Amino acid sequence: MNFEEYKNDFLETVRVSASEDMTSINNAFLDTVINILEDAEEIDDFIFGYFNGNGSRNKKMIMDGYYYDEYDKSLVVLYSDFTNGEEESLTNTDIERDYNCLRNLVESCENGFVLNAGFEEASPGVELANLIKLKNDEIIKYRFYIVTDKKLSNRVKNLKQQKIGNKIVDLNIWDMNRFYNMYASNQVKESIDINFNPTEVIPCINAVNEDKYKAYLAVIPGIVLANLYIEYGSRLLEGNVRSFLSIKGKVNKGIRNTILNEPNMFFAYNNGIAATATEMDVDPFTKCITRIKDLQIINGGQTTASIANVILQDKNLEAVENIFVPMKISIVDDDKANEIIPQISRFANSQNKVDESDFFSNHPYHIRIEEFSRKIFAPPVNGNMYQTIWFYERAKGQYTQAQMKLTAAEKKKFQTKNPKSQVLKKVDIAKYLNTFSCRPDIVSKGAQASMRYFAEIITKKWEQSDLEYNENYYKKLISYAIIFKETEKLVADQDWYKEIKAYRANIVTYSIAVIVDKLNKYYSNKSIDYKKIWNEQKMYKELYNQLLRTTKEMLSFITRDDRQTLNVTEWCKKEECWKRASSYNFELNEEFIESLVDKYLLKQDEKDSKKEQKMVNELNADILVIGLGQEYWKKVYNWGREQKLFTPMEDDLIRLVSTFEQTGKIPSSKQATIILQTREKLIDEGMPKEFWLNY
Predict the structure, then answer these.
(1) How far is the C-alpha of 449 from the C-alpha of 460, rounded, in Å?
(2) Could you count the other beta carbons within 10 Å of the beta carbon of residue 580?
(3) Which residues contact 99 (CB under 8 A, 6 or more apart)?
(4) Are 307 and 226 in contact (CB under 8 A)?
(5) Interstrand relation of 47-54 and 213-221 (parallel, antiparallel or unpaired)
(6) 379 Cβ contact list (under 8 Å, min separation 6)
(7) Distance between CA 213 and CA 276 in Å, rounded?
(8) How many CB atoms lie within 10 A of CB 244?
(9) Which of 188, 167, 145 is nearest to 43 (CA)?
(10) In 218-356, which residue ranges form alpha helices assigned H by DSSP?
């Protein structure tokens, strides 16, 4: 697909989304590019909020939303310059205009103008001003984003980006060409290509040369590492690790104290960092790194952030200049990166305890949901003769990658079967399930916090029994998705929302949660008719009308004057906010109550689905155990016996399967399940990777 084809396809997708979601084409464009930027790990937990006004000295202010990055202490403010294909070039004049509007907004927030100018308290501009006031001492950098359907003009010169106070300003322009280049490179996230100058001396030695990867041991000066983090921020941190590591813990304080008080001992005290890359150039004479591509820090995020913060917050450049950091770098080919890097990340983390749930993408739960999503078709609706599926992205970019090599006709057929509006991501599932589990405060904390809470819950429940995660569960999950997505559309279409264009995410999760909470408390034998929602692939009238009422009430609730935190978005993150909401007297419509179904009617479906899942599990265990072959199990048996890890029963079973081709004795389904459980135990006890990587 060339650039023009990509652009036309991109814009057509935006127009279709606007039509399907019953929203403006501007909103559809913004929603599309935010999804791309989040997948590319450029931004995270973006807060949509349009704001337009005149600031101090009557200067124009404008934005479409913002987000605060806790990891690198940067504040993102974004503006969408969308023309629907009517204008071709993004000129220097356009950039200067948009940049100045964003700058004027931030400056007017910093100097107190926005808070004192009489803007509506609930407006996104006031929210941003409150956030800047709250985080002012923490914020290190402002990151301005201009997203557009134009193409950057060849005549554009570098725009001088002045500091705002003592804070760095970083301008990021995402034009159609940049979106296309990322698409054409077949990458989910934009590549980071770093060229080191001669003064940035990073000596290294080649330690490993394997088919799958190469490994180097290096020593990186603290000042070089800090500058990389200041420039690239949290983009340098591998996704799973960034999601779950805090930069406020005891380890962080210890690192800072060593830098400030004993910089000469840093190399001895610190474990260093572990990183991956897809390419690296080393000078053959000096043995120093000259270039590195797709650098990702997979262990040592706290070390990196701490060194940078000594420069930015403590203003102590001298201390950082005197420290050196040990670094292990694994070089993995592009085509193997998605497979190998998560595994390296999983096993490299020791400085901070990272739970198994932190590396959750390959958990059997997600594998099973992915399997269901590829084989369970939704009922045909709206007079269509064809069925569709809800495409679950267990790994980022699966939906796009599935279409990369398709012809135009094949792509159209694929999208008919797998509509973009029915693409689900891990963070989506976490958001839906946490909402229906009555934790809107967790959902309001953002995608990563929501994901972690969800991962912990699922991991525990899965260990107890995986049988509840069956086809019936999957259909109910899709019903949750339908309710959530339609509630988002419902809110966006209301006049009261159009006045403020803020807090939609909070309104939606809290509204659904308070309804479910009331049902749990006062109608415990009743349920929303999820089966009907699945069959019709939409909310039914009574539920829609209930949410129509509750969402408006919820806006009034979360913006009440008695809230503990002035910033509404921050208030919704607090457990106290949810406690008040759950005890507040939100009324349920009589017709909605009458539409509820008796839970006992759903019990048989759940029972049958668990029974069916048990049979599937046993069949899968049989196939896997036998499929691995006798020779494989001989190796496992010998290793386990040498380590003296078997119980008598486990010894008998592994010995049985290690000789089944000779004896003809095949383990039963129950025995096969125990054999696989034994293998998991051996993995936990340190069994070599060649015995389990193919699992």
Answers:
(1) 17
(2) 17
(3) 144, 146, 159, 161, 171
(4) yes
(5) unpaired
(6) 387, 534, 535, 536, 537
(7) 10
(8) 21
(9) 145
(10) 222-232, 239-244, 250-261, 266-269, 301-312, 317-321, 334-348
* 147 membership: H or E segment, kind and range: strand 141-148
Q: Record the tokens describing residue 641, joined without a space.
A: 């016996």
Residue type, 50: Y
Q: For residues 294 and 277, give the distance between their C-alpha atoms in angstroms, rounded to a whole number.
A: 5
Q: Can you spell out the DSSP letters for 375-398?
A: H-PBPP-TT-SS-B--EEESSTTH
Q: By the 8 A CB rule, do 273 and 327 touch?
A: yes
**Residue-wise pLDDT tens digits, 547-582:** 999 999 999 999 998 998 888 888 999 999 999 999
Q: How far is the C-alpha of 547 from the C-alpha of 483, rounded, in Å? A: 10
Kindly list the domain boundaries of the chain, sorted by start residue: 3-184, 193-354, 364-598, 603-691
Interatomic CA distance for residues 433 and 553, integer angstroms? 23
What is the reported pTM? 0.73
Q: What is the dihedral of CA 430, 431, 432, 436, to 10 degrees?
A: 100
Helices and strands: H and E segment counts in the chain: 32, 19
Torsion angles phi and psi, residue 47, rounded to 5: -105, 110
Token pair of 48 as six digits: 């949509």
Nearest-angstrom CA–CA distance, 418 and 648: 50
- pLDDT tens digits along 15-64: 988 887 778 899 899 999 998 888 777 887 898 889 999 988 899 999 99
Query: What letter represents residue 531's amino acid?
Result: K
Distance CA 638, CA 690 (A): 14
| Cα 434 from Cα 508, distance rounded (Å) | 12
